[in-house]
Every structure is written in C-alpha cells, then in structure tokens.
Specification:
Length: about 120
C-alpha cells in the first residue's frame, strides 16, 4: 500500500493492518479481546474493518510491549490512563501515530532504493 492510498483510507482490512504494523493477524485478534479497546466494524460477511483509531491503538500497544517491554497488563494500565482522562498520548509517552508510520514508510522506501 503506497502513502497516497494510506492517506485516503478510513477503514482497513486485517491484512492491511498486518502489513502496516508488522503485527501478525492472530496477535491483532488477540489484542482485540485482551484490551477491549480495538473495536473493528464487522461487515455482514463477518470480516473486520479497522478504523484509523484502531490502527493507532495497535501501534501504541506494539510500542509499549516491544520497545518498552511492558506486559500486556502493564500496557492496559498505561492505555487506560489516557482513556479515562481523555488526554492524547504524545510521542514523549512512547507512542507513534499514523503520521509517524507514513514518515517511516517513506524512509523505508528511500533506504530500499539506496540498497538497490
């Protein structure tokens, strides 16, 4: 998926979320149940459609668990603070947003061009 397509999309399939975040589908489904804050829309066919907010949440969970080495329980507590107060997480809190993801994808593309 290129950056232009990403900017124009409001909903994503689980495969697109997997591609964008490098988080396996089974992990995304597990986090849906474990955290209760990732709430994809279900089509009549049963397929999930994730929102940009879901994408940002998955990126936050990934950041907390992989970079900051939090347990799932610790990540839940950390995220619940922001949910309760309505405060928006900042980069200084260790979160990356979809805008950051776009930028990182551009860098990845540039680096792959250099390597070739």
């Amino acid at each position: 998926m290129n950056l232009e397509e990403l900017q124009n999309k409001n909903y994503f399939t689980i495969g697109e979320i997997e591609e964008l975040t490098n988080v396996a589908k089974y992990t995304i489904r597990y986090w849906e149940k474990a955290f209760g804050i990732i709430k994809p829309i279900r089509k009549e066919s049963g397929h999930r459609r994730y929102t940009r907010q879901d994408l940002d949440t998955i990126l936050k969970i990934k950041e907390l668990t992989l970079k900051h080495k939090m347990t799932l329980e610790g990540a839940k507590k950390h995220l619940s603070r922001f949910m309760q107060t309505g405060a928006k997480p900042k980069k200084s809190d260790g979160f990356y947003t979809i805008r950051d993801l776009k930028f990182l994808k551009e860098i990845q593309k540039d680096l792959s061009q250099i390597v070739k």
